[in-house]
Specification:
Order of helices and strands: HHEHHEEH
Number of domains: 1
Largest sheet: 3 strands, antiparallel
CATH topology: Arc Repressor Mutant, subunit A
CATH architecture: Orthogonal Bundle
Protein name: Autorepressor SdpR family transcription factor
CATH class: Mainly Alpha
Radius of gyration: 13 Å
Strand content: 15-25%
Helix content: 55-70%
Keywords: DNA-binding, Transcription, Transcription regulation
Organism: Pontibacter locisalis
Structural class: alpha+beta
Number of strands: 3
Pfam family, one: HTH_5
């Protein structure tokens, strides 16, 4: 769960999640939405992937990233138990 909170702590990573909420995207498409280097975007995507917040699938020469809401469902369920 520490990886999850670390991933959510960064505003760039949260914005990447917002982009992926709309549609699955390649790293290049994601990078086009930001004014930072492609290696930096790849680093952010790696952290999101390690936390389970995104999935990646290779299609030809591209890697397609998608939002993984299962981890968020688990997080919300845990948060709700704290209130009980």
């Amino acid at each position: 769960m520490n990886q999850l909170f670390k991933a959510l702590n960064d505003p760039t990573r949260r914005e990447i999640l917002n982009l992926l909420k709309e549609k699955d995207m390649t790293a290049g498409e994601i990078a086009n939405a930001f004014n930072i280097t492609k290696p930096s975007i790849s680093h952010h995507l790696d952290i999101l992937n390690q936390a389970g917040l995104v999935t990646s699938e290779k299609k030809g020469q591209f890697v397609i990233y998608a939002l993984n809401t299962t981890v968020l469902d688990d997080l919300l369920s845990w948060i709700i138990t704290l209130k009980e």
